Each structure stands twice: as C-alpha cells, then as structure tokens.
C-alpha cells in the first residue's frame, strides 16, 4: 500500500512540474472587433525574410528572444521598421528553447500581432493572435486559425476604411 501511495504522489508531482514549465496564456483567445485589437500596435500579414540572434540587450539574464526581418504583404494596423523581436527560442539561432516558442522561420508567411516594447521595438510572442499563414513552400496552413483570422481582419478593416 505504501508503494502505491508513493507512486501516486510521485506521478502527481511529475504532472505538477510539467504544468509549471508549460506555456500558459490568459485573456481573450479570439477577436471580433477592432476594439479587441486595441492592445496591438501592429497587425499585418508578413513574409519572414530572415531570422537571427538579436543584438538588443537583454533586460534579464533569462530573457529569450530573437529577431526577424520581414516584408509587409498586407497591413491592417500600424507600421514596422522592417524587423520584429520574437520572444522565445528558435533552434536555428538561439541556444535555448521553451514551451512558448513560436517556431517562426525564414521564408514563411505569418499573420503577426505585435506590441511596441519600452525601446520602441515591435515584439510578438506565443500568447498573441500571431499564427503561421503559409510555410516556406507557400502552402497555406490547414490547421490553426490564420486563414479565418486573415479573412476576419480583411472584413473588419475594409469596413472601417472603404
């Protein structure tokens, strides 16, 4: 009986520790109006031209981010200086990774939702509405929400700017 209780406690601790290291997002998980996007400074369909380790200094020792140069294909809100910070790791350019990595890579097309940081640099992360629209071969994603979100954005912003 003691072994069974020990095994149960061990399994509970294992699941609790996995939960502690997983990525969690809170807040609204979809948008329906322009007001739902008020917290974003930049919303656009973009082509990822390159990804690289960022030269922007880290605020904290454990900060994990990289940078991407991009071309705006269709803009809905704000403008960019041509690059964006992406919070999380990327096996191609960072030494570490996390459960919050977005997996953005060169030549992909993404629907990006970003905010400006303290230094004015646009940044996005796992808990935004950002999602891959097409892979590097140009194939649109058939899972996820990017195709429907793009159509929703076109409707919201066309109605506002006929």
TrEMBL record:
The keyword Signal applies. Keywords: Signal. The keyword Signal applies. Residues 1-22 form the signal peptide. It comes from the Bacteria. This is Tissue inhibitor of metalloproteinase. It comes from Algoriphagus oliviformis.
């Amino acid at each position: 009986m003691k072994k069974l209780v020990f095994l149960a406690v061990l399994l509970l601790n294992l699941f609790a520790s996995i939960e502690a290291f997983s990525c969690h997002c809170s807040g609204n998980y979809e948008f329906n109006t322009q007001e739902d996007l008020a917290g974003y400074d930049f919303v656009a369909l973009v082509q990822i031209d390159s990804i690289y380790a960022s030269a922007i200094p880290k605020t904290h020792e454990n900060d994990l981010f990289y940078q991407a140069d991009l071309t705006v294909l269709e803009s809905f809100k704000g403008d960019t200086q041509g690059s964006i910070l992406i919070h999380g790791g990327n096996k191609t350019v960072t030494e570490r990774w996390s459960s919050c990595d977005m997996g953005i890579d060169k030549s992909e097309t993404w629907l990006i939702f970003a905010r400006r940081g303290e230094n004015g640099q646009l940044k996005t992360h796992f808990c935004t509405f950002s999602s891959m629209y097409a892979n590097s071969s140009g194939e649109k994603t058939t899972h996820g929400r990017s195709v429907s979100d793009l159509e929703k954005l076109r409707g919201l912003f066309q109605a506002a700017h006929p």
